[in-house]
Amino acid sequence: MIVTQFMRSQEQLEDEIRQDVIEIRRFLPQWGYREVTVFKEGRRGLLYCALWKRCEEPDDRPGAVGYARVSTILQSDNHSLVTQIRQQLELAQERGHVIHYIYIDAGFTGRDDRRPAFSHMIRHIAQDNNSQDKKHIFFNYIYDVYRFYRNLHGLTSHYALLQKNKVELVSTTDKNTDYSSRDGKILLYLKGMMGELYLDDLSRTTRDNKYSHALDGYSNASQPPFGYCRGNCLDCTDPNGRDYCPRFGGPDLWRELGDDRKVFVPHPIESVAFQMAANWYATGQYSDADIARMLNASGYQLNPHSTLPFRPKGRPGRPGKNRRFGKDSLRDMLQNPYYAGFVLYRPMKKNEKNGLRNQGGKRANPLGQTHKRQPTDLIWLPGKHIPLISPDLFQRCLEVRGAKGHLPRSNSGRTARVFPLSGVLRCDRCGGTFRGTAANGDIRYYEDVKRAQGESDCPVRSVRAEKLEEPVFAYVQQLHIPKDWYPDILAYVFQDDAQWNERCRQRRSLESQIRALKAEFELQIISAGELVQAKQQLEHDLQQLVEQDNEVEESLAALLDNFPRLWQAASPLERKTLIRCIFLNIHLHDGKITAYALRDPFIPLFPTT
After folding, report:
1. Closest Cα partner for 104 from 39, 192, 195, 19?
2. CA 346 → CA 212, 362, 548, distances in Å?
3. Are 591 and 460 contacting, i.e. CB atoms less than 8 angstroms apart?
4. What does the alpha-carbon distance between residue 339 and residue 128 come to, in Å, rounded to a whole number?
5. Cβ–Cβ < 8 Å for 596, 475
6. CB under 8 Å to 286, separation ≥6 — which residues?
7. Rounded to an integer, what distance in angstroms lies between the CA atom of residue 444 and that of residue 466?
8. Contacts of 329 (CB under 8 A, 6+ apart)
């Protein structure tokens, strides 16, 4: 049975849980229950945590609560929510008990107690026992111990809580077993160990499978991100497929772009929208909100007379035509290395205090300080999919976001002013960083964050921006760029220059024609005179292109020789980006600069003092 479950796809498993939720919502009203509270619901029905209450008037039978759970990993058919609840209700009726409340957790693992309905049930039991009114809960019905908990320590500790509150745990699978007896305790401990070992083996297998999947270049995402689709145009179910994509119902796109249907392919329209967004953001002139507004106002040119407005992917099964881009979705996309040709693998890490899995914090910008998760938590692997942008453009987007990470904003939401030193200034006393702030509209300061928040008692809270920026700017202008850096810098500068790329193309074409002439002469297709005449003209054209390139390179090389001139021409945001590239930290002591901590490549580029 387990082998068959592993062969099922993640999508099939999720569909089973969604179907369980639909069935339980139909089943419980037939037994006289109503949904009172939904603690959590999301992921298109995959997560569902709720409390159901019996509608009929209370009677004199002993009261109980029921609990049912299905997880997101593996479920066999006989573990469905309806099966669990039906057997609990039948056993309670057979024993003369009444289940007043039914708690349901769908889409949560039993490894820990981070389950909304389960946590509320435990608190409900404790409150009922400590209440001054009549006690109503004497039994806790479950389908199986594994549905209650799959961790030995958690199982025993929560069973002890039930005993403390004078509540008996009743399992429909072990209905003739008293867990408070000697044999019952042995069975309870054995099931706790078996459940924990099962989850450990399952986690290791799942983790290894996901890592192998990523090593092979495949994404572990169940749905393609914006900009990509499955490429199965004949039977497309993508939200931006029918009535939107011009290829809908035509030949499968994945067959044209590759031979592996497991690889996501660029969506004909979404990919264009993302490329426009990345190029806009890389300029450093627009925020996420600005780009969202620009995309909402733009569209895809189907033909000279028809334009199709861009729209986000949305959710499967909800093909709303009025969807609009938001800044949050743009922020996540512009930090996703998948678009640059990489797939991500996130190793599972446990909390050292409680041994549970760390959750949340998926965003990571290696060049920014916008999230607690460290970039070392993510493994980037080459993907098999077609990238939408180059790694250099993606790196540029990260650099822009890192530089904007400390930009203050005005009340209107637009950038008010740039503080080039924010994020690199560090106090020697408390170790805190400094942020930019302003007073009376025009007076700029750098403020010690820990001192401002009351976490330190440093004597200096803020320093005028000019007093720090002037010596730092003067120090930076002493930088001397080595000549062996010039080729890489010029290649970076010219990579998006249309004229330069056109001249490079022409040079390659002329060189190819010269080689072809020599080959024709060796094969005696042309004479020596024809060779000399044609070769002279081609070499003359080639020399002109080389001279043009040399002039441009010489002018830029002269500019690189004069770094102070480059610094004066740079914008405030460009200066901020350069400072973050050059310095690890700039140390302050009571508002005065004491030391510059340079990044390794820049240490030999400054004069020793």
Report:
1. 39
2. 12, 9, 49
3. yes
4. 53
5. yes
6. 280, 294
7. 8
8. 226, 292, 312
Q: How far is CA 130 from CA 112, 126, 127, 510, 538, in A?
A: 25, 6, 5, 91, 96
Which residue type is seen at 17? I
Specify the 3-state DSSP secondary structure of 394. helix
CA dist., res. 254 & res. 206, Å (int):
27
Mean pLDDT of the chain: 81
Residues 6+ apart with CB under 8 A from 39: 49, 50, 51, 116, 117, 120
For position 339, what pLDDT does the model report? 92
What mean pLDDT is predicted for residues 505-517? 82
How do the domains of the chain map onto residue ranges?
2-204, 228-392, 406-476+586-605, 497-562
* Extended beta strands in 230-309, E state: 265-266, 299-303, 306-309
Q: Residues with Cβ < 8 Å from 16, sequence gap 6 or more?
A: 75, 80
Element at 229 (helix H, strand E):
strand 228-229
Find the mean pLDDT for residues 299-305: 83
**What share of the chain has pLDDT > 90, as a percent?**
18
How far, in Å, CA of 237 to CA of 317, rounded?
A: 8
Report pLDDT digits (tens) over 343-366. 888 776 655 555 555 544 444 444
pLDDT by residue (tens digit) across 53-77? Answer: 998 877 788 999 999 998 865 444 4
Nearest CA to 105 out of 139, 79, 78 is that of 79
Structure tokens at 77: 């058919």
Q: Give first-to-last CA distance, the chain, whole Å.
A: 72
Give the chain's largest Cα–Cα span.
116
Q: Among 1-5, 139-143, 533-537, where is mean pLDDT lowest? A: 1-5
pLDDT in tens, 367-382: 443 444 444 467 888 8
> Does the model's pTM come out above 0.85?
no
Q: How many CB atoms lie within 10 A of CB 232?
A: 16
Residue 411 has pLDDT above 80, yes or no: no
- Are 334 and 365 in contact by the 8 Å Cβ rule? The answer is no
- Within 10 Å of residue 21's Cβ, how many Cβ atoms? 19
The CATH number given to 2-204 is: 3.40.50.1390
In the block, tokens 């743009």 appear at 330
